[in-house]
Structure formats: C-alpha cells, structure tokens
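Notes from hallway chat w/ T.B., transcribed later so I don't forget. T.B. wanted the structure written out for a chain they're using in a teaching module, and asked if we could keep both sequence and structure tokens in one place. Agreed to drop them here.
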Amino acid sequence: NNKRFIDQTLLDWVFIAELMGLSNGDGLFHKKYLSLIFNKKQRDVLLFVVDGMQKLGLNTAIKPHSLSSACETVSFYSVHLIEVLKENGVYWNKGKDKKTPQFVLQGSKEIICAYIRGLFESDGCVALNKGKSGRVKFGNCSFNICEELQHLLYIIGIHSTISSYKKEGSQEMFSVGINGKNSIQKFKDFIGFRSE
C-alpha cells in the first residue's frame, strides 16, 4: 500500500542512511517509489534492504534487471516514506546532481558510517596490491557526492583523496580513494562492507 502512514519516530534512521547511500550509487527515485539495483554477489545487501523495508511494513518487489541477467532490481512503493525523506533533506537529483541527504551531513557517527557503507556497497571496491596495504575506492559521476563523502570520512578520522578521470566519449567520473594502513583499518572497523 503506497499510501501507508509511517510514524517517523519509529524509523530506523541508521537503516535509512544506508539505504540512501545505496540509492545514491545504484538507485532510482520517483515521487512514489525507490528502486535499487544489486548484482548477484550482493545478495546479502539485497536481503538486508528487503528485511528493513518489511520492518517498516512496506512490501518490496524483487525482479530480474531488465538490462542484465547478472543483476536484480528491488523496488518499494510508499508515497508517505518518500515525503518523510524529502522532509529530512533527501534530494531527488539524478546523476551528477546527486547530493548527500541533510540528515546524514548533520547525523551521528553511526548514521554517517551507515551512509558511507551504502555508497561503497553500490559503487565501491577494494583493490589489493601484493605486499602493500591496498586501497578502498568509490567512484561516481557526482562531484558533490564525492566531496561530501570525503568530508564525512574526515569526520570519522579517515584520510582520503579525490581524483577525476574521463574516458573518451563518456562523462567525467570522480573517485574517492582511501589509502594507508591506518585509514583502511578505520574503514574496516567503522564501516566495512555487507557483501563479500
């Protein structure tokens, strides 16, 4: 039922923050619904989202992705939840115009870490180098998201850098890289990944 009333005092804002991170990576907002795309390796994340939506009393639909057999789309419909999110600073922008929600920018460490986890689950990776500590990386077409991510990482004591790149015939992309043993360990301790 997409007109179901949701009591804001009962919302799990940590879950909502992680959901917003996922959606800023691989999501589609509409005035009535939110859809997220997961690859088959992210089944744990998909089930986490479905469970969280069910706890809110919302039905979800899981369907094969229309463009890739390696992916699934999870959608939920709730006009009221979308309105609640708007009231709490969730921006309904696409692509390069996406922004971090205000409730995350002004949130607790727990909310910030959940949002960052969602971003990295959607558009992040870990690159391991033989004999070195490796690198954790996030990529997105929105400089706003990357700059705000770097600020949020700084708040929790993680050093990061932003770089940009552009392949011929495509739009400019930005990446946030976390290097160094201490920063990577903090990422692992405070944020981590749900998927393997």
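Follow-up for T.B.: Strands lie at 27-29, 33-39, 60-64, 71-77, 124-127, 135-140, 161-165, 173-178. Might be a good example for the class.
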